[in-house]
Design a protein that fits this description.
The protein is an alpha+beta fold. Helix content is 19%, strand content 30%.
């Protein structure tokens, strides 16, 4: 599945266009590599997302095309969250 679509379906980022912008700015790494919106992600990949002053590292547990809002968090596990100094 494309990275931008995974971010939207899992609701880590609410809109696919916003997910694409975040990817284009180089704020997302997949398995340690800066990733583009079209990067293919698979189960077991580790993703690092930088949101302003916060960095979140998640592991992809499940890939699904359609997920209900309440089931979205089961698609990933949060490994760590850390604050970034400005």
């Amino acid at each position: 599945m494309r990275l931008d679509k995974f971010l939207k379906v899992s609701r880590l980022i609410k809109r696919r266009t916003l997910a694409k912008e975040v990817c284009d700015k180089g704020r997302i790494k997949v398995n340690g590599q800066v990733a583009k919106a079209g990067t293919n992600v698979k189960q077991g990949d580790e993703m690092e997302i930088t949101f302003g002053q916060k960095k979140v590292t998640v592991k992809i547990d499940v890939i699904k095309e359609i997920v209900k809002k309440e089931d979205a968090p089961m698609m990933y596990s949060i490994i760590k969250e850390e604050q970034i100094q400005a």
